[in-house]
Write a structure and sequence with these properties.
Distance between the termini: 29 Å
Low-confidence stretches: none
Shape: globular
Number of strands: 7
Oligomer: single chain
Radius of gyration: 15 Å
Largest sheet: 7 strands, mixed
Number of domains: 1
CATH class: Alpha Beta
CATH architecture: 3-Layer(aba) Sandwich
Helix content: 25-40%
Structural class: alpha/beta
Number of helices: 5
Length: 176
Protein backbone atom coordinates (compact mmCIF):
# COMPACT_ATOMS: atom_id res chain seq x y z
CA UNK A 1 0.00 0.00 0.00
CA UNK A 2 1.48 3.31 -1.12
CA UNK A 3 0.62 6.87 -0.09
CA UNK A 4 0.28 8.83 -3.33
CA UNK A 5 0.73 12.46 -2.27
CA UNK A 6 0.96 14.94 0.56
CA UNK A 7 3.08 14.89 3.70
CA UNK A 8 3.51 11.09 3.62
CA UNK A 9 4.01 10.89 -0.17
CA UNK A 10 5.82 7.77 -1.33
CA UNK A 11 5.55 5.92 1.98
CA UNK A 12 4.87 2.23 1.52
CA UNK A 13 2.95 0.44 4.23
CA UNK A 14 3.16 -3.33 4.43
CA UNK A 15 -0.34 -4.75 4.82
CA UNK A 16 -0.34 -7.93 6.93
CA UNK A 17 -1.44 -11.14 5.24
CA UNK A 18 -4.26 -11.61 7.76
CA UNK A 19 -6.09 -8.52 6.42
CA UNK A 20 -9.12 -9.67 4.45
CA UNK A 21 -10.05 -6.27 3.00
CA UNK A 22 -9.70 -5.62 -0.70
CA UNK A 23 -7.68 -2.39 -0.77
CA UNK A 24 -8.31 0.10 -3.55
CA UNK A 25 -5.50 -0.46 -6.05
CA UNK A 26 -2.76 2.18 -6.22
CA UNK A 27 -3.72 2.78 -9.87
CA UNK A 28 -7.38 3.44 -9.00
CA UNK A 29 -6.49 5.47 -5.90
CA UNK A 30 -4.13 7.68 -7.90
CA UNK A 31 -6.81 8.22 -10.56
CA UNK A 32 -9.43 9.03 -7.93
CA UNK A 33 -7.26 11.55 -6.12
CA UNK A 34 -6.24 13.20 -9.39
CA UNK A 35 -9.94 13.77 -10.07
CA UNK A 36 -10.58 14.96 -6.51
CA UNK A 37 -7.66 17.42 -6.75
CA UNK A 38 -9.62 19.25 -9.46
CA UNK A 39 -12.87 19.26 -7.48
CA UNK A 40 -11.99 19.99 -3.88
CA UNK A 41 -9.43 21.74 -1.71
CA UNK A 42 -8.31 19.11 0.79
CA UNK A 43 -6.95 21.49 3.40
CA UNK A 44 -9.44 22.07 6.17
CA UNK A 45 -12.17 19.64 5.11
CA UNK A 46 -13.94 16.98 7.19
CA UNK A 47 -13.91 13.49 5.67
CA UNK A 48 -15.86 10.33 6.44
CA UNK A 49 -14.43 7.01 5.20
CA UNK A 50 -16.94 4.16 5.35
CA UNK A 51 -15.75 0.53 5.19
CA UNK A 52 -12.16 1.72 5.80
CA UNK A 53 -10.50 -1.68 5.44
CA UNK A 54 -6.74 -1.04 5.50
CA UNK A 55 -7.24 2.69 6.02
CA UNK A 56 -5.50 3.44 2.73
CA UNK A 57 -8.03 6.08 1.63
CA UNK A 58 -8.28 7.64 5.11
CA UNK A 59 -4.51 7.95 5.37
CA UNK A 60 -4.34 9.45 1.88
CA UNK A 61 -6.82 12.13 2.99
CA UNK A 62 -4.80 12.79 6.16
CA UNK A 63 -1.60 13.04 4.10
CA UNK A 64 -3.27 15.76 2.03
CA UNK A 65 -3.92 17.84 5.18
CA UNK A 66 -7.64 17.34 5.67
CA UNK A 67 -8.80 18.81 8.97
CA UNK A 68 -10.36 15.59 10.24
CA UNK A 69 -10.96 12.09 8.97
CA UNK A 70 -13.36 9.64 10.58
CA UNK A 71 -12.78 6.03 9.58
CA UNK A 72 -15.49 3.45 10.13
CA UNK A 73 -14.36 -0.17 10.20
CA UNK A 74 -15.83 -3.19 11.95
CA UNK A 75 -13.07 -5.80 11.61
CA UNK A 76 -10.69 -6.11 14.60
CA UNK A 77 -7.59 -6.90 12.53
CA UNK A 78 -8.25 -4.04 10.13
CA UNK A 79 -8.73 -1.63 13.04
CA UNK A 80 -5.49 -2.82 14.64
CA UNK A 81 -3.62 -2.18 11.38
CA UNK A 82 -5.07 1.33 11.00
CA UNK A 83 -4.14 2.13 14.63
CA UNK A 84 -0.60 0.83 14.06
CA UNK A 85 -0.13 2.98 10.94
CA UNK A 86 -1.51 6.06 12.71
CA UNK A 87 0.94 5.50 15.58
CA UNK A 88 3.90 5.00 13.20
CA UNK A 89 3.08 8.16 11.22
CA UNK A 90 2.07 10.12 14.35
CA UNK A 91 -1.35 10.88 12.86
CA UNK A 92 -3.60 12.74 15.29
CA UNK A 93 -6.49 13.88 13.07
CA UNK A 94 -7.83 10.44 12.16
CA UNK A 95 -10.58 9.06 14.39
CA UNK A 96 -11.16 5.34 14.01
CA UNK A 97 -14.57 4.07 15.06
CA UNK A 98 -14.97 0.31 15.29
CA UNK A 99 -18.60 -0.28 14.40
CA UNK A 100 -21.00 -1.40 11.71
CA UNK A 101 -21.25 1.23 8.95
CA UNK A 102 -25.04 1.10 8.80
CA UNK A 103 -25.35 1.53 12.56
CA UNK A 104 -22.98 4.51 12.40
CA UNK A 105 -24.83 6.16 9.51
CA UNK A 106 -28.17 5.70 11.26
CA UNK A 107 -26.96 7.46 14.41
CA UNK A 108 -24.63 10.08 12.87
CA UNK A 109 -25.64 13.73 13.20
CA UNK A 110 -22.48 15.28 11.75
CA UNK A 111 -22.00 16.51 8.20
CA UNK A 112 -18.94 16.06 6.03
CA UNK A 113 -17.34 17.81 3.07
CA UNK A 114 -16.28 14.48 1.60
CA UNK A 115 -17.59 10.95 2.12
CA UNK A 116 -15.92 7.90 0.62
CA UNK A 117 -17.36 4.39 0.81
CA UNK A 118 -15.67 1.19 -0.33
CA UNK A 119 -18.04 -1.59 0.73
CA UNK A 120 -17.45 -5.22 -0.13
CA UNK A 121 -18.55 -5.55 -3.76
CA UNK A 122 -20.89 -8.42 -2.87
CA UNK A 123 -22.63 -6.47 -0.07
CA UNK A 124 -26.40 -6.92 -0.45
CA UNK A 125 -27.15 -3.32 0.65
CA UNK A 126 -24.52 -1.71 -1.62
CA UNK A 127 -27.08 -0.15 -3.97
CA UNK A 128 -28.87 1.53 -1.04
CA UNK A 129 -25.79 3.33 0.31
CA UNK A 130 -26.27 6.57 -1.71
CA UNK A 131 -29.90 6.79 -0.55
CA UNK A 132 -28.80 6.35 3.08
CA UNK A 133 -26.17 9.07 2.84
CA UNK A 134 -28.65 11.58 1.45
CA UNK A 135 -31.56 10.51 3.67
CA UNK A 136 -29.41 11.09 6.76
CA UNK A 137 -28.17 14.44 5.35
CA UNK A 138 -24.52 13.55 5.98
CA UNK A 139 -23.06 15.76 3.25
CA UNK A 140 -22.46 19.45 3.74
CA UNK A 141 -23.74 21.78 1.03
CA UNK A 142 -21.48 21.29 -2.02
CA UNK A 143 -20.10 18.14 -0.39
CA UNK A 144 -19.05 15.14 -2.45
CA UNK A 145 -19.81 11.45 -1.93
CA UNK A 146 -17.76 8.81 -3.77
CA UNK A 147 -18.82 5.17 -3.83
CA UNK A 148 -16.43 2.47 -4.99
CA UNK A 149 -18.15 -0.53 -6.58
CA UNK A 150 -17.89 -3.23 -9.22
CA UNK A 151 -19.06 -2.91 -12.82
CA UNK A 152 -22.30 -4.71 -11.86
CA UNK A 153 -23.62 -1.59 -10.14
CA UNK A 154 -24.98 1.43 -12.01
CA UNK A 155 -26.05 4.68 -10.36
CA UNK A 156 -26.58 6.99 -13.36
CA UNK A 157 -30.32 7.24 -12.58
CA UNK A 158 -29.78 8.33 -8.95
CA UNK A 159 -30.95 11.93 -8.45
CA UNK A 160 -27.64 12.96 -6.85
CA UNK A 161 -25.37 11.17 -9.35
CA UNK A 162 -22.87 13.46 -11.11
CA UNK A 163 -20.09 11.28 -12.59
CA UNK A 164 -18.70 7.78 -13.03
CA UNK A 165 -15.11 6.67 -13.62
CA UNK A 166 -13.51 3.28 -13.85
CA UNK A 167 -9.92 2.19 -13.41
CA UNK A 168 -9.61 -1.42 -14.45
CA UNK A 169 -12.06 -3.39 -12.31
CA UNK A 170 -12.57 -0.49 -9.89
CA UNK A 171 -15.54 1.82 -10.45
CA UNK A 172 -16.22 5.11 -8.71
CA UNK A 173 -19.61 6.85 -8.75
CA UNK A 174 -19.73 10.48 -7.64
CA UNK A 175 -22.73 12.09 -5.97
CA UNK A 176 -23.49 15.65 -4.83
Amino acid sequence: MRIISGQFKGRRLQVPTNITARPTTDFAKEGLFNLLNNRIDFEGIDVLDLFSGTGSISIEFVSRECKSVISIEQNDRHCAFIKKVCAELKITNLSLIKTDVFRFVESCHAQFDMIFADPPYELVQLAQIPDLIFAKNLLKEDGLFVLEHSSKNHFEEHPHFVDHRNYGNVNFSFFQ
